[in-house]
Each structure stands twice: as C-alpha cells, then as structure tokens.
Amino acid sequence: MNKRRKFQLIAIASVTGTILILAVTLFLLFHFVLKDKINSFIKKMQEQKAPVEETNTQEPQKRETEPEEEIETEAEEETESYAEPEEETDPLEQQIRAILGTMTMDQKIGQLFIVTPEELTGVDTVTAAGEATQAALARYPVGGLLYFSGNIKDPSQLKEMTANTMSYSKELTGLPIFLSIDEEGGEVTRIASNGRFDVPEFDSMHTIGETGDPSKAYDVGASIGAYLGEYGINLDFAPVADVLTNSENTVVADRSFGSDPKLVSEMAIQVAAGLQDNGVYACMKHFPGHGATAEDSHNGAAVTQKTWEEMLDADIVPFRDGIIQDIQFLMVAHINAPNITGDDTPASLSSIIITEKLRNELGYSGIVVTDGMNMKAITDQYNSAQAAVKAIQAGADIILLPEDLETAYQGIREAVADGIITVERIDESLSRILRVKLQMTG
Predict the structure, then answer these.
(1) Prediction pTM value
(2) What span, in angstroms and rounded, lies between the C-alpha atoms of 405 and 118?
(3) Residues 109-141 pLDDT 10s
(4) Host domain of residue 241
(5) Is 442 part of any domain?
(6) CA-to-CA distance for 385 and 391, rounded, in angstroms?
(7) Are 190 and 182 in contact (CB under 8 A)?
(8) 121: CB partners within 8 A, 6+ apart
(9) Closest among 352, 348, 319, 354 to 335, alpha carbons compared
C-alpha cells in the first residue's frame, strides 16, 4: 500500500470516528438535555390548557353543587316556615290574641281586679249570687272575687253562690272567673273554721314545719284543695312562703313554716302541689318576704332593712324555688325595702321589686297579685286610683281588694287614655290572666 492510499484510509477513519463521536454526543445531548427541555415545554403547554379544561370540568361540578345549595336553602326555608308558625300557630296563643282583639278596654281593665262580692255589688253582706251579682258583673266584669267568712253560711249555699257566679261570668264575658279564698290552714281559714262544714282542720303551719316532713305539708294542701274544689273555689291565696327571719314579726308568726329557708321552701311547695293536684290554683305569698319585718302592713308601713343579697340568701329562697316549680300565682307584699328600692315605695308598687327583681332577675312569668290594696300600708299614702295605676306600672297583673273599685277602675281607664299606661302593658297582663283562665276546667 502506497503512502497516498494509507493517508486516505487514515483520513476516512478519522472522519468516521469524528462522526461517531458527534452522533454519540448528539444522542447524549438529546437524552439528558433536550429531552428534559422538550418535556418541560410539553408540560407548560398542557398547563396552559389546564385552566380551560379545569374550568370545563368545574362548571359541571358547580352545576351539580348549585342544586345541592338550592336544596339546602329550600330546606332552611322549609325549617323556617315550620319554626315561625310554631310560635304563631300555638292554639292557646292564637286564642289569647283572638280574645284580646274582641275585648273593649273596660272589659280588659275589669280582668285586672279581684274584689269582694260586697265591693262589686254594693250590698252589705253577700251570701248569694243572683240578679244583683249578674248586673254588677255586667258593669264591672272583674277577673275574680274573694270570699271571706261572712260570705259563707253552709255547703249548699256556697256551692250555689259559686256556681251562679261562674255561670254569670261565662255568660257575660265568655271567661271563667277566679273564685278565691284565704284558706291557709291553722288560724287563717274561712271554711274550716265554720262548724257547718265537715272538713279537716289543721295545726298551724309552724307546727307542720316543726315535723320536718314535707309529706304532711302536701296532705294539708291536698285536703284543702279537695274541699275547695268541691265548693267551687278555684284559687287559694296560700301557702305562706315567708321565712320567719325577724323574731319580732307578728303578721306572719305561726303562719310561717319556720326560719329555715330550705324547710320553708320544701313545705310551701308541697302545700302548693297538694292544692294544684286537686284542681285549685295556689298563690305563694308574700314576696319578697314579710317574715323580715317587725310591723304589720295591715296597720301601716312595714319595713325591712335587708339588702337584695341578704334576702336572696333567705327570704327569696322559697319564692325562687316556687318559680322553678312553675307556680302560676305569686302575691307581692306592701313592705318597704329601702335598701333595695332606694326609697319607701311599697314592694307591690315598685317596678324595681316586681319587674327588675321578680320578673327579670328571677325569671317569673306567671301572674303577680298585689296584697290587699285596702291595707293601711297603701291607703295611708295613696288613693285607690293612684295605687291601682302604680301597681300596673310596676308590673303587677291583678289588683287585689282596692279600697274603692270604681275609683281604681276609672284611674286605670284615664291612665290608658292619657298614655300613662299603654294598651300593650294592659294586654301583657291580660295575656297572663287569659293563659290561666283558658286552661281552667271549672
């Protein structure tokens, strides 16, 4: 092989090697570099398309979700449509509103009073219910009557009198009437103290309290409730729930179950339960606690210097427990509590006592009855109109025994006409009264 040929072969081999090296280099470059860049480019292109595709896929999801939201909204609306009418379609509430809508203001005002048959009719001593009672109820359609010993002669007379009175009330107003009495047991009785009635008599409530046995208190309430119901009485101003915290007290004394708040509470609640189990409403008295005074509000001002906190620890305990037990009636005393009210306003006329403390703080939603407004603690300071107006303004629902019914009636009528008492405030009390009356069976 000549030199020229040899040189050619070496050149060819060199070119071939270079080509191979270049091919390998290009392969490696594509595999390790360009491939990644191409894949990255493809991925970016896909990502740019992705929002469109995602939008296209999410839109159907939204369309699927939206009906669920609509269903949920419809369900909420359906729930609301059931929830709202529940309050408004409560049959008793509807009935109350319907009755309020048909009553005149005079009829509404009448329901705020419980008076004696004598005060209603003008007769000296009432022992029967006839034309005079019927005519008086037509003129003053009062919410209730309170009977004393002088009104009660014998069982048949009492039954006839209460039956006739109830009949007249329903005929004239379409509502039952509260026929009430003070039948506490012990010293304070109107029927058991009458020898013509064959009913059980009981020791003082102080004696019952000393036994420490609540079942004995229940027996008192149940026995009294049974005979009151038989004679047509549907409301008993009992039990006395006052805790005897003032040793000089004379107005409560043996009428109280004792000085232990827990004991008094247990006993009073059991008396109330016994009465109510026999169809007679109980009324716990005398809020915020007449056992804390030395004076008798029948004879003039009666004062306690206790603070609200001090009364909460003792005097208020039975009333607070009674509220928990859903007592329907609670009587407010005429006592002065200057360290609570800041002045000498009787509790029965104090919005601090009735609305702020009893209603708002203790949560009482039942009927508030004043103590007898013919007592000197009231009459020494106010005339019948003033006392009646102040009691309603304070939050009371029923004015018991105004000294003069006509004056008290007119006082409230004028207060409403002058805007001193609103129609809404009257309706508030009427609603509580009607709620009880519409559930009465007698």
Answers:
(1) 0.80
(2) 11
(3) 999 999 999 999 999 999 999 999 999 999 999
(4) 98-437
(5) no
(6) 10
(7) yes
(8) 132, 133, 136
(9) 348
